[in-house]
Amino acid sequence: MKKLFLLMAISAGFLIAAAQTDTIPPFKKSPYIPAFKILQTDSTWFAKENIPKNKPVIIIYFSPDCGHCQITAKEFAEKMNELDDVFMVWVSRYAPQEVKKFGEEYKLNQFANVRLGTDTKYFIPVFYDVRFTPFMAVYDKKGKLLETYPQGTGPDTVAKLLHKKS
Questions:
Q1: Distance, CA of 29 to CA of 25 (rounded, Å)
Q2: Are 108 and 122 contacting, i.e. CB atoms less than 8 angstroms apart?
Q3: pLDDT in tens, 5-48
Q4: According to a count of CB atoms within 10 Å of the terminal CB, is the N or C end of the chain lower?
Q5: What is the C-alpha to C-alpha distance for residues 151 and 40, in angstroms, rounded to an integer?
Q6: Average confidence score pLDDT of the chain
Q7: pLDDT at position 8, please?
């Protein structure tokens, strides 16, 4: 009986320890652009190291079939002249052909400061604890996190944030 009680007590201890997981998302522990890698629509890889230096960066996690993402893409494409000094990485879990179609439909693929790709390792949504799309993380010229928008935002809000911090 004592052995059974001891075994139960040890098991309960392990369960309690396992249940106490870290609830702080990684992006809050490391407020810099993460080391990501996405498969672009032309079958090449794009990683953090490929981001141009000394430019603000927006990482946008989206779904091609998300209505809010479609509106956001349209708004950003229309206001790209206000954000031409900002580098944007549009990331999705969808297949590259679906991401390519999205980029073409919303004309994001025609901008030199935009990269579109598939997160084949599902890194971005885990790193940012993404719950909704579009999700946005805005970084300053040094790669430090300025703000996250868990349900997205418009280009005017991002432009104001970046020009205030410049």
A1: 7
A2: no
A3: 554 555 555 555 444 566 887 778 888 999 999 999 999 999 99
A4: N
A5: 24
A6: 89
A7: 54
